[in-house]
Inverse folding.
C-alpha cells in the first residue's frame, strides 16, 4: 500500500488533506478499507470508498501497467519511508512533486489553482524531478493529456473551428482592439508568413514585458470571444471571464513552450490584469470597435 497525493505533505502545503490517495492492487485496497466495506469501482484503473471521516481514492495496480511501474519506482527509492500509523509506504517529496507536475496542465481541472500552489510550495521546499525519474514522468504526463492540443501551424481559418457558433469577430481584430501597446504583442514574435504560428526564438528574445503582454492579451481575447461577447457583456463578470480564460491559456487552449511560460507566469499575468483594472480589456474592446472585423469562417 502506497500513499500518494497531498496527505504526506499536508503540513508543508499548509492545509489538511481531506482525502487519502492510494496506490494499490484491488485486493490490497479492499483489505485496507476493511473486508466488510465495499469499494466503488470508478473505472478499470480507479476505485474509491467514502468512509466516516475521509474519502479513499485508489489508483489500481494491474500487471504491465503504468501504476505498477510507479509502485516499483517508489518501492525501489531509498527516500521512500514507512508510515506506521497509516500502515503504508510514503514516497519522497521529489516523487510526489513529479506526480503533481505530470498533471499541472490537465484540462478543465477543478483543482488547477490548488495544484499550482502545491507545486510552488514543493519547489520552495527544494523539490525537483530527478533525472532517473524523468522517463516515467514523461510517460505519466503523456497519459494524462490524452486529448488533442492546438496545432498552431495552420491558417487561422483552420485553427478557429467554424462550427463554434460563439465566433462573432475575427480573432486577430480582437487582438488589435485590446492591444496594450498599440500593436498586438504576438506580432513581435510571430513566424513570418504564418497566420497563427509563433516563433519560440523570437518570443524568448523579446523583452519579458512583451512576453507577459502576449499571454495577457491572448487571455483578454479568449475572455471576450468565449465568455463576454456570447453573454452580451452580462451575467458573468470581466474578472471571472479573465481568470477562466487564463486558466485555459495555461492548460488546454495553448500548448508547448507558450503554455509553459503562461503557467509559470500566471501570477504576473494576473497582477498585470489587476494593475490595468478589471474592466480595462472590456473598455478597450468598446473604444476600438472600429478595428473589429466580422468573423467570416473558412474561406
Amino acid at each position: 500500500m502506497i500513499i500518494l497525493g497531498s496527505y504526506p505533505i499536508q503540513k508543508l502545503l499548509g492545509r489538511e488533506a481531506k482525502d487519502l490517495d492510494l496506490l494499490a492492487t484491488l485486493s490490497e485496497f479492499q483489505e485496507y478499507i476493511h473486508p466488510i466495506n465495499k469499494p466503488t469501482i470508478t473505472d478499470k484503473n480507479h476505485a474509491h470508498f467514502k468512509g466516516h471521516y475521509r474519502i479513499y481514492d485508489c489508483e489500481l495496480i494491474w500487471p504491465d501497467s503504468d501504476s505498477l511501474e510507479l509502485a516499483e519506482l517508489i518501492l525501489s527509492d531509498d527516500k521512500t519511508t514507512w508510515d506506521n500509523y497509516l500502515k503504508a509506504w510514503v514516497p519522497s517529496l521529489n516523487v510526489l512533486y513529479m506526480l503533481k507536475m505530470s498533471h499541472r496542465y490537465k484540462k478543465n481541472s477543478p483543482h488547477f489553482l490548488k495544484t499550482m500552489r502545491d507545486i510552488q510550495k514543493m519547489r520552495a521546499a527544494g523539490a525537483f524531478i530527478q533525472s532517473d525519474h524523468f522517463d516515467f514522468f514523461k510517460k505519466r504526463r503523456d497519459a494524462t493529456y490524452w486529448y488533442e492540443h492546438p496545432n498552431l501551424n495552420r491558417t487561422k481559418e483552420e485553427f478557429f473551428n467554424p462550427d463554434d457558433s460563439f465566433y462573432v469577430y475575427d480573432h486577430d481584430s480582437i487582438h488589435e482592439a485590446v492591444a496594450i501597446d498599440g500593436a498586438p504583442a504576438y506580432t513581435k514574435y510571430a513566424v513570418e508568413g504564418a497566420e497563427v504560428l509563433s516563433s519560440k526564438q523570437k518570443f524568448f528574445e523579446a523583452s519579458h514585458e512583451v512576453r507577459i503582454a502576449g499571454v495577457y492579451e491572448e487571455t483578454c481575447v479568449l475572455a471576450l470571444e468565449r465568455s463576454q461577447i456570447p453573454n452580451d457583456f452580462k451575467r458573468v463578470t470581466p474578472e471571472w471571464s479573465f481568470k477562466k480564460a487564463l486558466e485555459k491559456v495555461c492548460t488546454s487552449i495553448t500548448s508547448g513552450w507558450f503554455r509553459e511560460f503562461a503557467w509559470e507566469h500566471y501570477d504576473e499575468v494576473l497582477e498585470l490584469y489587476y494593475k490595468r483594472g478589471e474592466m480595462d480589456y472590456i473598455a478597450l474592446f468598446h473604444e476600438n470597435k472600429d478595428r473589429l472585423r466580422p468573423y467570416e469562417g473558412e474561406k
Observations:
- Residues 156-291 form one domain.
